[in-house]
């Protein structure tokens, strides 16, 4: 799809066609959304779809998960006129942090960190990442926010797969994603 072309009719998820499949092997995500971010209308429509369910909700801050969640998270924070908090992979923050181990989509064990002075008790946080595949990364972010006294106001991602971890998150938190129900099975099966 042309990065300048805007379809005459733009239904929810039209921009998903901009994503490209993995050509590098099993250590990479199965689909790359970065072309979607290059298309100005696609990025705007994706953000509108992600944030629509949270209109009128009390959100104090947006947190994005390292690394691609920084793009959507920062854009969502700017759209909502809220601050942005980066939840980082271990070893990147030079301040006091709280850490949480997790397994990512490839099954690799990792450690995530959050600065301890960013969240005060009761602060309502919208968590944003580009993808929730197994749910391990998002669940670690949820645990960090809640351990520091924050409240998870919602979870937003381009896609939330119906994996065991994805279902766990969707059963407990208000969630938003961009995949229309008719396409969800294809995303769940990585097609």
Which structural traits does this protein have?
seven-stranded mixed β-sheet; about 190 residues; 6 helices; alpha/beta; about 25% strand; Rossmann fold
CATH topology: Rossmann fold
Overall geometric form: globular
Q: What is the count of DSSP helices, taking H or I runs of 4+ residues?
A: 6
Main β-sheet, spatial strand arrangement: 5-6-4-3-7-9-11
Helix content: 25-40%
User: How many separate domains?
Assistant: 1
Q: Determine the N-to-C terminus distance.
A: 18 Å
User: Mind describing the biggest β-sheet?
Assistant: 7 strands, mixed
The CATH architecture can be named as 3-Layer(aba) Sandwich
Multimeric state: single chain
**Protein structure class:** alpha/beta
Order of helices and strands: EEHHEHEEEEEHEEHEH
- Report the β-strand fraction as a percent range: 15-25%
CATH class: Alpha Beta
Number of E-type strands: 11
Roughly what is the average pLDDT, rounded to an integer? Answer: 93
Radius of gyration, in Å, reads 16 Å
């Amino acid at each position: 799809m042309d990065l300048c072309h805007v379809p005459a009719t733009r239904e929810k998820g039209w921009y998903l066609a901009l994503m490209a499949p993995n050509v590098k092997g099993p250590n990479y995500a199965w689909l790359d959304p970065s072309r979607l971010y290059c298309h100005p209308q696609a990025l705007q429509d994706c953000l509108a779809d992600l944030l629509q369910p949270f209109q009128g909700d009390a959100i104090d801050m947006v947190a994005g998960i390292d690394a691609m969640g920084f793009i959507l998270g920062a854009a969502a924070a700017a759209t909502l006129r809220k601050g942005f908090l980066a939840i980082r992979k271990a070893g990147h923050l030079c301040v006091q942090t709280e850490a949480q181990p997790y397994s990512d989509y490839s099954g690799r064990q990792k450690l995530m960190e959050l600065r301890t002075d960013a969240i005060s008790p009761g602060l309502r946080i919208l968590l944003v990442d580009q993808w929730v595949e197994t749910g391990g990364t998002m669940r670690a972010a949820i645990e960090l926010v809640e351990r520091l006294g924050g409240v998870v106001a919602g979870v937003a991602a381009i896609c939330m797969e119906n994996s065991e971890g994805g279902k766990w998150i969707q059963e407990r938190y208000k969630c938003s994603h961009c995949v229309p129900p008719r396409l969800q099975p294809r995303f769940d099966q990585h097609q």
